[in-house]
Amino acid sequence: MKVYNTLTKKKEEFTPLEEGKVSMYVCGPTVYNLIHIGNARPMIVFDTVRRYLEYKGYEVNYVSNFTDVDDKIIKKSVEEGIPAEEVAKRYIAECKKDMAAMNVKPATTHPLATQEIPGMLDMISALIAKGYAYAAEDGTVYYRTRNFKGYGKLSGKNIDDLQAGHRDIQVTGELKEDPLDFVLWKPKKEGEPYWESPWCKGRPGWHIECSVMAKKYLGDEIDIHAGGEDLIFPHHENEIAQSEAANGTPFARYWLHNAFLNIDNKKMSKSLGNFFTVRDIAEKYDLQVLRFFMLSAHYRSPLNFSADLMDAAKNGLERILTAAENLRRLSEASAGSLSTDGMTDEEQKLYAQTDAHVEKFEASMEDDFNTADAVSAVFELVKFCNTHASSDSSRAFLNALSARLTQLCDVLGIITEKEEEMLDEEIEQLIAERQAARKVKNFARADEIRDQLAAMGIILKDTREGVIWKRS
Predict the structure, then answer these.
(1) How many other β-carbons are positioned within 10 Å of the β-carbon of residue 198?
(2) Could you give the percent of the chain with pLDDT greater than 70?
(3) What is the DSSP-derived secondary structure letter of residue 144?
(4) Is 5 exposed, middle or buried (0-12, 13-18, 19+ CB in 10 A)?
């Protein structure tokens, strides 16, 4: 298996630290709002990487954090007049709902930054003791960037060039020894959440959080560290500097980064009015379509989001789901044997031909997780199934084809079995129950019903005239 390593700028043979096991850390979102489709790309991409590794028999320890203390979270808490912890808790719950709707598997561990403060204090203290960090007069602790000789090895940036003009990590402040030094711990401001430390009442810098969580849940050295390419510098560069200085060992063997997602060939931004949350997309499409769209390009290639491309993804996904449903329908109608032995000689020869599609699928995924080519292999298998499965086929043949198609789709996180569609009367009954719950201020039950309907593709809209609904 070959993976492109951002650290070495080339494809390398994947060899984990421990045979049969993979340790993987993926930077998660900062939880101050609903996640947007830019957040969704790494979630889907690296969930698929994990699924393929598990398909190959690896035991994957997959850690993805939630950054639950941050300036944006604090700003939101001030705006709403509620504790920052409440803001973070709400949006973690909403993020998990969106992840489930995109069929992103829960991580082995989803650590929260605020629960790992003791480990951060320990690592910062170790860095100070080793001369890699220092406390300023106001209690801010800075990392001595120049003391780490390998700084820039991930991003390819030269530290002298950074000093000369680049402002990516320079922060003005008279208390710093060097403009390139970055923050490990900072003093609290009025009204902000804070923790006690040897240096001041304050909170951690962003970069130290991931270094500590990766160390605690995966070890000093890990197999894969992944995230969006926007994190390469300074976040991942700073993680390397912190972790390797503190632990005295290489931090991550393989660094994987997905490319940006653009909207109609423009960078997504609220100012351009082209900013979409995953919930926005869920109003128009089943989120399986969003997942399928994200896998239609190689993860290191920029991906352009547009209505036309989403419609194309919807049609492509429908081809796969229709083929899977056809196999199930034919199998239910078949009177043939349930066992593989029930195939005719001709069917066994035909089924053997599907090995080529599996081999193409695996070869694509083995080549730096090329999901675009893997999807192409699935389409070829779909065409084979549509051509050779019929009412004359044995149940054993139909079930074997169905299992093979389902197995490959499962690696991609594509659910081949459609949920049974709810009848209109059932929907109306649930809406009536929701209205009754709202009337008695049982908002938890009301939200539960809305989420239940949303998961089944039913979108509700509260109007003056009452609740209206539509299928997504």
Answers:
(1) 12
(2) 94
(3) -
(4) buried
pTM over 0.85: yes
Q: What is the mean pLDDT of the chain?
A: 93
Strand partners, 261: 303
Indicate the helix (H) or strand (E) that contains 7.
Answer: none
Determine how many CB atoms are found less than 10 A away from the CB of residue 356: 13
C-alpha closest to that of 123 among 239, 255, 29 = 239
Q: For 425-448, give the DSSP string.
A: HHHHHHHHHHHHHHHTT-HHHHHH
Name the DSSP class of 34: P
Strand partners, 263: 266, 305
The strand order across the sheet containing 182-187 reads 133-135, 141-143, 182-187, 202-204
Burial class (CB in 10 A: 0-12, 13-18, 19+), 105: middle
Of the candidate ranges 265-279, 292-306, 345-359, 391-405, the one whose mean pLDDT is the lowest: 265-279
Alpha-carbon distance of 120 to 445, in angstroms, equals 39
Cis status of the peptide bond prior to 204, with omega within 30 of 0? no
Give the C-alpha separation, 232 to 442, whole Å. 45
Q: Three-state SS for 25?
A: strand
- Phi, psi at 456, each rounded to 5°: -100, 15
Q: Given this model, what pLDDT does residue 212 score?
A: 98
Task: Give the whole-angstrom CA distance, residue 280 versus residue 305.
Answer: 13
> What does the pLDDT read at residue 335?
59
Question: What is residue 300's DSSP assignment?
Answer: T
Mean pLDDT, residues 32-37 taken together: 96
Task: For the chain, give the percent of residues with pLDDT over 90.
Answer: 80
Total residues belonging to the chain: 472
Q: Beta strand 252-258 with 261-263: parallel, antiparallel or unpaired? A: unpaired
Q: Compute how many other C-beta atoms are within 10 angstroms of the C-beta atom of residue 446.
A: 18
Q: In terms of Cα–Cα distance, which of 353, 365, 69 is closest to 195?
A: 69
- Residue 452 reports pLDDT greater than 90: no
Tell me how far CA of residue 445 lies from CA of 101, 431, 440, 442, 471, in angstroms. 19, 11, 10, 6, 21
Tokens 């995953």 found at? 278
The whole-angstrom separation of Cα 102 and Cα 289 is 9
Which of 111, 3, 102 is closest to 52 using CA atoms?
3
Where residue 156 falls (left for φ over 0; alpha for ψ -120 to 50; beta otherwise) is left
